[in-house]
Structures are given as C-alpha cells and as structure tokens.
C-alpha cells in the first residue's frame, strides 16, 4: 500500500502505525488509518484514529470516532469516558455532561468521571456544583496533587488568590513539578501584583520546556525574524505549558508599560501559523500588534464571535477599550448594543460607567461630565478612606496590614486615573485648555505624583500658550529621568520642551537638548528603524516660528527637518506640518499681510519640488485602523504639486 510517499507492506500496518504514534507523528498516522477502508468499521481502527485526533487537538473528529465506538462496543465504558472528554475539550459542555450522567458506573472510572464532571461544571462557571463534586473525590491513589490543584482553581475564581496559592504550592511539592500547576501559582502572584515571584515560576517552566522539548523551537521566530517553520500544536506543546507561560510573561510586560517586551515574549513562543494559534495568544497579539490598531481590532472581533467558551474573558472589554483608544466611539456603542448579554458578565460596573461616559461625550458632553464627576467622587471618597487606613497601619507598624492597605490604595488609584484623564479630555477636545487645567488641578490631590498625570498636565499647560515655564517644570523631570536614553522619551515631550525653552528665552538649553538628541540618533543610526525625534523637534519649532509669522526661518527649519524633502522622513505624519505652514504662508500672501524675500520663496519652491518628486507614492493622510474605502488615497507628491502651483501663481500676481 502507498501512503504519504511511503509504501507499507502487507503485515506491517500495525507496526508502522504504532511507530508513528510512538514518535508522535499523529498526522501521518491519521492519514495512514484513513487510507485503510476497515478503519471506520473496526474497534481497533476507530480507537487508534480517535486517539490520534485527540492528540492533534481535533476534538470534534475524536468525538466522532468515540461516538461510533460506543455504538459498536457499548459495554466498554472507557470509550464513553473518552467521548465525554473529547466533547468537553471541544467546548460542548452540555453534551459532555449528558454522556457522563449515565452509563459510567464502573468503580475503576469513578475518580476520572468525577474529575471530568467537576471540570465541566467549572467550564460552565457553575462553581458550586464543581465544589460539591470535588468533595466527593478521594485523596488516595496519588490524587492529592490533582485535588489540591482543583481546589486552588476554585479559590482563584473566587478571587481568593492567597488561599489558592496555599493549594498550588503543596500540589507542586507533593506531585512533583507540573508546568500547569506552576502556571496557576504564577497567575496568582500576577493577580496579587507580585510580578517577580510570577516571573520566577515562568522562568522555570520555560527552562524545563526548552530542555525537555527542543523540537518545539522556542525562540526560533526571533532568531529567523518570523521565518521559522511552524511546529503546529503537538501534544508536547500542550504538556509543556510554554504557551501559557509566555503569554503570562507578555501580560506582565504589557501591564508594566513595556509593549516591546510583551511582543518579544510572544515572539519567543514556538512558531505557529496564525490559524494554529490558541485564543489567548491571538488576543495578546491583538493588543501588542506593531502595525497599528486595525489588525488588533479585527482579531479581537473574531475572537468575540467565537463565543464565551472559546474567547478569553478579557476580549469584550479590550475590544471596547481599543475602539475608544482609536476614537471609534460609534463602533464601541454598536458593539455594546449587539452584545448586551456580555455587558453584565464581562464588564465591571466601573468599566461600564467609564465606557458609557466616553461614548456619551460624543453627543452630550455635559451629561458625560456629570457621569464622570459621579464616578470620580465615588472613587475619591474610597481613596481618602484608604489613605487614612494606610496611615493607621503605619502607626501600628503592622507590615502585612500595611502591604494590603497599600495594594488596595494603588488599585483604587489605578481606577481613578482614567476617570480624571477622561474629565480633562472633554474640555481638551473642544480646545478649552483652561477647563482641562481646572480638571487636572481637581485631581492633583491623588494623582500629582503619577508620571502619566504629570505628562498630560504638562501638555495642557503647554497648550495654554502663556504657561511655558510651568510646562517646562513638568517636562524637565521626565527628560532628566531618561537623559542617558533620550530616544526612549516621546518626541512630543522633547519638542514641547524645546519650544518652552525658546518661548522663555532659554535658547541655550534648547540647543543643548537638540544636540543631545542629534548625537543619540547618530549613534543609533538606522539599525533599529527610522528615528524621527530630531525631525519632529525641528518640525514643531518651525511650526512655532510660522505661527509667529516668521515664515522665512520657520519653513527653512521644516525643510531642514525633512532633509530638503528628499529623505525617508517624508511621510503622512510629517507632511501634515509642512502643508499647514505652507497654507498659512499662501493665505498671508493672498491677503498681502506677508512678504517674503525672493530667495526664501525660491527655497520654498525647491523644497516643494523635492517633496513632489519623492512623495509620488506616499499617502498624504493618516487613515483609521479600520478605514478601507478602496479608493486610492491622495499622495504627498500630488498635494506638493498643487501647493507649488498656488505659490507660483501668487508670486506672479502683482
């Protein structure tokens, strides 16, 4: 017989198939078995085929095989158990429960049946039933570690993370190292914000996984820049716990604000193609996608359509938050309306109120301000009470109570900060910077030491136009803190600080800061991608001078920032500053309020001609993450040509 480029001689089918299974070549084994006509009608064939499909995580096909088996040999209860297990793994909890409810009365299978029934109840979020079934299990026969692990999972779902840890750690000690139990312990530490302990467990899982399963190719994607061959989803990957460990590491990095570190953790995963990814990995890739929000939104929307049993519980909330981040408030409102049944299940009252206020702000800002004010007052009252509790614990020198009180205070502060930012954002978006400053002053009682609050407060003071000195006082600590790695500072911060220095007659400080950025860019080169820090600083300074009607110097600074319009820095992000300033010049010339020397006008024409040549295929506008009109977007080259034509016409006008 010829199968998969291999000839199997008569009498060697059994040996060949069992060798494939031993070597975990389950795809080859299923191909061979499906090529044998008797497979679908014999107990041996269906049993082997069901086992292979189960190991390949094709649980629907495995369930079909075991369904045929229980009809073929109804007295063998093991097949009924395997059928129920396959249905459970496929997410068909109700069907699995029906199978376990009858026909499984063998004493030898009682422990496994109880464990499966408890897992089904847990998957259905019926934790009371899961607990009662767990109590019926016996501690003997080496089940102590398994029972402690299941007890820990129930305590985890009840948010009793400390008690859950007291089950997971003994389970590891009594049953030997189990990557899944170690992951559960790491997850508890993560929920308790004890990231160093969580990372210790993750490191051990990864170290053992690499040592025991080198065939999984951990880190191969990073070494080959994403070109590694997919390893699929072999049983070794599920048994190693590597996927869970790397995803938890990515979550820790993401929570700490290190998005690049989160991407690196996901890149270290065993290489798989996107259709082979598990839902948690797909979810985390959506949040850390370097290509922008479009792909992330599509992935989260896809996961949401799979249903609650498959998609991670955080999917619904993160999809809504990502829509709000990209100012797609109508889309967020539609998602909320279409999935009302998920609102109460996956959104906390706090998060629902916050999202509701952000969406309401698009039509009725006054109502949104009232909602956010109510939410801020509620959390503010809790923060004051918690601050008093922290002081009491410090006076009593109770370190454990102090740690718990500080953790509660920090958690409440994390909830308060987005509300405070949203209250300031409403007047900000209407260019009411005085109103935004008023909101920041109202939240200074709790947030004044928070880096993100200080950054946005600096932006508000800067936009006031008459508070440059105060804005610089907020920007300077941010720059000093990262002075040795100045390119890690957002370019907007550096640009605004330079402008603040110029506007307060501190030109030397501005020049020194720009020289520092220039030296850092020269050292970095183009090894790690395009760096636009100095370009943006020059663009902002040039725009400032143009706003003060000094177009000669302002446009020369802008042209210098973009290498005369012929460099790689020409893109939609930078072009928007160019055309605003050129349009301002054209407006002033048309009104005869601005007169430029002929040399300056000729330099501007040359700059626009270079932009026209090098920007022929570069889009001139930024598109939203889900915008796909199908139409060809305007290019920088086309817009530069139109601006040059207008300038020539005005130069000829007498």
Summarize the structure in words:
This protein is an all-alpha fold. It is built from 34 helices and 2 strands. The chain has helices at 13-22, 26-34, 43-55, 59-72, 77-89, 93-100, 110-123, 127-135, 144-157, 161-175, 179-191, 195-212, 220-223, 235-240, 242-255, 259-267, 279-287, 293-306, 315-325, 329-338, 340-346, 349-360, 365-396, 399-429, 433-447, 451-464, 468-481, 491-503, 507-524, 533-547, 551-561, 572-590, 598-614, 636-652; strands at residues 2-3, 6-7. Strands 1-2 form a two-stranded antiparallel ribbon. α11 runs antiparallel to α12 and α11 runs parallel beside α15. It is globular. The model is unreliable at 1-5 (pLDDT under 50).
What form results from the Cα inertia axes? globular
Tally of extended strands? 2
Which runs of at least 5 residues are low in confidence (pLDDT < 50)? 1-5
- The number of helical runs is 34
Summing up helix and strand content along with how strands pair, one would put the structural category as mainly alpha
Estimate what percentage of residues fall within beta strands: under 5%
Helix content: over 70%
Terminal CA distance reads 92 Å
Overall pLDDT, averaged? 87
Q: Give the radius of gyration.
A: 31 Å
Please summarize the sheet with the most strands: 2 strands, antiparallel
Q: What kind of oligomer do you see?
A: single chain
Strand order, main sheet: write it out.
1-2
């Amino acid at each position: 017989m010829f199968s998969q480029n291999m000839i199997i001689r008569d009498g060697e089918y059994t040996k060949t198939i069992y060798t494939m299974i031993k070597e975990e070549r389950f795809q080859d084994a299923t191909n061979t078995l499906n090529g044998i006509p008797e497979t679908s009608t014999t107990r041996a064939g269906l049993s082997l085929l069901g086992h292979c499909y189960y190991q390949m995580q094709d649980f629907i096909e495995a369930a079909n095989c075991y369904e045929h088996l229980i009809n073929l040999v109804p007295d063998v209860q093991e097949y009924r158990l395997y059928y129920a297990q396959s249905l459970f793994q496929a997410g068909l909890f109700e069907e699995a429960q029906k199978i376990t409810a009858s026909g499984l009365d063998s004493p030898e299978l009682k422990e496994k049946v109880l464990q499966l029934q408890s897992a089904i109840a847990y998957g259905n979020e019926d934790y009371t039933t899961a607990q009662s079934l767990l109590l019926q299990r016996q501690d003997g026969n080496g089940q102590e570690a398994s029972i402690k692990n299941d007890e820990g999972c129930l305590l985890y779902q009840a948010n009793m993370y400390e008690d859950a840890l007291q089950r997971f750690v003994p389970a590891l000690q009594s049953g030997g190292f189990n990557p899944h139990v170690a992951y559960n312990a790491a997850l508890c530490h993560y929920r308790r914000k004890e990231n160093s302990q969580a990372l210790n467990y993750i490191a051990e899982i990864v170290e053992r996984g690499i040592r025991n399963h080198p065939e999984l190719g951990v880190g191969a994607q990073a070494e080959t820049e994403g070109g590694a061959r997919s390893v699929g989803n072999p049983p070794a990957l599920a048994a190693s716990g590597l996927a869970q460990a790397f995803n938890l590491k990515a979550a820790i990095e993401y929570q700490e604000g290190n998005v690049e570190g989160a991407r690196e953790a996901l890149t270290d995963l065993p290489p798989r193609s996107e259709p082979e990814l598990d839902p948690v990995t797909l979810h985390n890739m959506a949040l850390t996608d370097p290509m922008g929000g479009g792909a992330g939104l599509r992935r989260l929307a896809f996961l949401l359509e799979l249903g609650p049993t498959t998609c991670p519980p955080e999917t619904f909330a993160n999809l809504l938050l990502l829509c709000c981040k990209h100012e797609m408030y109508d889309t967020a409102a539609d998602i909320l309306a279409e999935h009302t049944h998920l609102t109460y299940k996956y959104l906390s009252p706090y998060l629902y109120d916050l999202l509701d206020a952000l969406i309401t702000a698009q039509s009725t800002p006054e109502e949104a301000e009232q909602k956010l004010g109510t939410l801020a007052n509620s959390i503010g009252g809790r923060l004051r009470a918690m601050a008093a509790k922290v002081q009491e614990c410090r006076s009593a020198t109770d370190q454990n109570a102090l740690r718990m009180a500080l953790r509660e205070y920090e958690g409440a502060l994390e909830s308060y900060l987005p509300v405070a930012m949203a209250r300031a954002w409403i007047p900000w978006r209407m260019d009411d910077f005085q109103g935004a400053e008023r909101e920041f002053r109202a939240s200074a009682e709790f947030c004044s030491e928070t880096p993100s609050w200080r950054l946005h407060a600096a932006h508000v003071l800067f936009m006031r136009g008459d508070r440059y000195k105060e804005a610089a006082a907020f920007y300077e600590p941010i720059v000093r803190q990262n002075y040795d790695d100045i390119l890690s500072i957002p370019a907007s911060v550096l640009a605004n600080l330079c402008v603040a220095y110029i506007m307060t007659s501190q030109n030397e400080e501005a020049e020194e800061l720009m020289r520092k950025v220039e030296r850092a860019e020269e050292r970095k080169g183009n090894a790690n991608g395009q760096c636009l820090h100095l370009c943006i600083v020059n663009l902002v300074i040039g725009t400032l001078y143009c706003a003060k009607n000094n177009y000669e110097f302002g446009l020369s600074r802008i042209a210098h920032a973009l290498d005369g319009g012929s460099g790689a820095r020409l893109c939609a992000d930078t072009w928007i500053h160019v055309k605003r300033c050129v349009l301002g010049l054209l407006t002033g010339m048309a009104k005869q309020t601005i007169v430029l020397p002929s040399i300056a006008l000729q330099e501007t024409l040359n700059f626009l001609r270079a932009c026209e040549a090098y920007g022929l295929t570069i889009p001139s506008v930024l598109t939203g993450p889900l915008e796909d009109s199908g139409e060809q977007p305007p290019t920088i080259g086309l817009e530069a040509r139109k601006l040059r034509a207008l300038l020539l016409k005005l130069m000829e006008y007498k």
